[in-house]
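Quick one: C-alpha cells for this chain, please?
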Amino acid sequence: MKQYSSVLIVCAIVIAAFLYALTDNYLMDIFVLTCFYGALAVAWNLMAGMTGLMSLGHALFVGIGAYSVAWGYSVHGWSPLITWPMGVALSVAAAYVIGGLCFRYGLRGYFFSIATLAFSEVVFFIVSATDQLGRSDGIILPIADHGLSQLQFMDKWPYGLIIGVILMATMLLCRILLNARTGYYWRALRDNEDAAQALGVNARAMKMRAFLISAAISGLCGAFYANYVAFVDPRSVLSIDLTIQLLVFSIIGGMSQLWGPLLGAGILVPFSDFLRGLTAIQGSNVIFYAALLMVLALLLPQGVAGWIVERTRRRRTRKRDRMQHTDVAQPQLVPRVSGAGNEQTETAQ
C-alpha cells in the first residue's frame, strides 16, 4: 500500500481541488487545464523520465486524438463513443509505425528526439494544407441539440469531472506499470541500455510498450481537449510548442518522480494564467514566466519533486541517526565476573 501512497495523495488533492472549484467557472477552467496538461506531462514523462526516450513529437498524438473528434463530429456527426476510441486507436497506430521505424534502426538519444520531431512536423504541415481538416484555420465543432450525447455542457464542472478521472486513472496505471516488472525494465533501459540488453531485457519491445501507452493517454487527452474547447487547429494541438510545454512541466516538477510533471503543471499553469491577468504591458507575463523557470531550474536542478523527496529523505535520516545515538548513549546493566571470585556484579557500561 505504501507504494501507492503518492497516487492516493494525488487523488485526494484532485478531488479537493475539484470540489473547491465547483463554485467558480474561472477556477474550474484552471482546474481543467491543469489536469489536462498534468495528464499529458505524466504520459510524456513515462517515456522521457522513466524509460529514457526523449520524444519531441508528442503533440502529434494529441493532435490525432483532437482531430479525430473534430472531424468525426463536424463531418459525420459521430458520437464520442466512436470518436474517442478512434482517436486513441489512431494515436497508438501512429506510435506503432514511428516506434517501429525508430527502434528497428536503433535510434537513441538525440537521434530519436529528432526523428519524432520530424514526423510531428510533417503531419503539422500536411494538416495545415488539407481542406477537409480546415487547413490552418482549424475546425469548429458545431453545437449539438442534445449536448450530453456529444459531451457538450453549459457548465464546466462536467469537464472537470471527466479530466479529473482521466488524470487519476493515468496516475494509477503508470504506478501499476512502474511497480511491475515492466517498470524495472524501463528504468534499467534508462540507466544503461547496453547493460540491460546484456542481462536479457528486450529493449525494442519494452520501449515500444512505453511509447504505445504514452501515445494512447495523449490521444485520449487530445480527444477530451477537442470536446472542451470545441475548436482545434494545427497551432494548438500539433505544434512543437505543446511538446515544449510538457517538457518544461516535467523538468520543473521533477522527472525522477511519477507525480513530478503533475506538480510542475500544478505550479506553472495557474501561475501563467495569473500573470496573464495581472500585467498590463503586453508580453510582460512571458518575461515573468521565463524568469520563474530560470530561477527554479537554477535553484532546483532536480525539480521541485526531487527537492521534496531529498529533503524528506534527509529529515528521516537525521531522525533515525538521533534515535540510534540516543539508544547508544543510554546506560545498560550487564553482568560481569569479578576477578577475585565467581560473584557476578552489575556494572554500568
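The chain has 14 helices and four strands.
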